[in-house]
Amino acid sequence: MAKITLDNLAHSYLANPTSEDDFALKELNHDWTDSEAYALLGASGCGKTTLLNIISGLLQPSRGRILFNDVDVTHEPTTERNIAQVFQFPVVYDTMTVRENLAFPLKNRGADKAYVAQRVQEIATMIGLEDTLNRKARGLTADAKQKISLGRGMVREDVNALLFDEPLTVIDPHMKWELRTQLKQLHQQFGHTMIYVTHDQTEALTFADKVVVMHDGRVVQIGTPEDLFKTPEHTFVGYFIGSPGMNVIPAKVEGNQAYINGAELSLANTYAPLDGRVEIGVRPEFARLSDSEGLPVKIRRIEDVGRHKIIRADCFGTPINIIADEAEEVRADATRVAFDPAHVNVYANDWRVTPQGRAA
């Protein structure tokens, strides 16, 4: 297992980058703790796979260093980093049996035969391939082949890190849930440092101890699922995490008051004077309809999704969402929306503003 340090790391696919916009991966400085499970989460093209490939050694960064346990491995090849990587699409040896595929990483390192047999059986059971161990990989489905790839990645117990690049893309939805659970159990049992790339927030939030949210080549927040939900540090995190995502409304903020198109909203905290584009952010879970308090709202439609209702509305021309209990009656005279002040965040130029203190 390894602590992974990103030291002034940046990468451009251009030969002579001249501005920040030329970098697919903008400067990063982070320490990722030994033995934790991380998910790299973000939309396509945000830099997730670029960062993973730099960590694995498949790509040399344009700038900065990558360290494993404080040892500089920036220019070390993949084979010297002692990592295992599972890719988006299955990579298997078709002419080998399932057993031979799973055993290959161990045999390649001269492991004891009895240990190889035991470990292969354990992993085959974990990924549900114990009944196909003696079958050639060639005739298996893409689903089964990807499970072999996962198994090959997990079979070694001595790796510095396990890297997964959207490994469940070709897996059916039911098996995705099972394999995520098994990966989580593997991590709890052996304590590998794991990094899991995905654009699926459910995969990220159910797998990882910490989620690394990326946007436009940057890490915009690293935190637990609870951190990302309650205190998104960037408006993108608010948009991307949650279904529906956080409501973001243009505002003017003075002290512990926010003004939206002239209407006043009391905040739980006080703020210093702010420059630039100022907005408030509040999750739909912390909004409720009212007929007497809050901001004016116009309901556009109501969606009943079984567990709750999603109310689609407009607040001074800004689309917002409100989540109501399944049993709650949405009244026709509910023309206002009230926000829980304790769960309203303030943003300046997309970044969350730290309050000066609690409102009196």
UniProtKB/TrEMBL annotation:
Return the PROSITE patterns for the record. ABC_TRANSPORTER_2
CDD domains linked? ABC_Carb_Solutes_like (cd03259)
* InterPro entries associated with the record: AAA+_ATPase, ABC_transporter-like_ATP-bd, ABC_transpr_FbpC, ABC_transpr_MalK/UgpC-like, Mo/tungstate-bd_C_term_dom, NA-bd_OB-fold, OB_MalK-like, P-loop_NTPase
Does Hydrolase show up as a keyword for this record?
no
- Give the family this protein belongs to, as stated in its UniProt record: Belongs to the ABC transporter superfamily.
From the Swiss-Prot or TrEMBL record, give the protein name. ABC transporter ATP-binding protein
Superkingdom is Bacteria
- SUPFAM superfamilies on file: MOP-like (SSF50331), P-loop containing nucleoside triphosphate hydrolases (SSF52540)
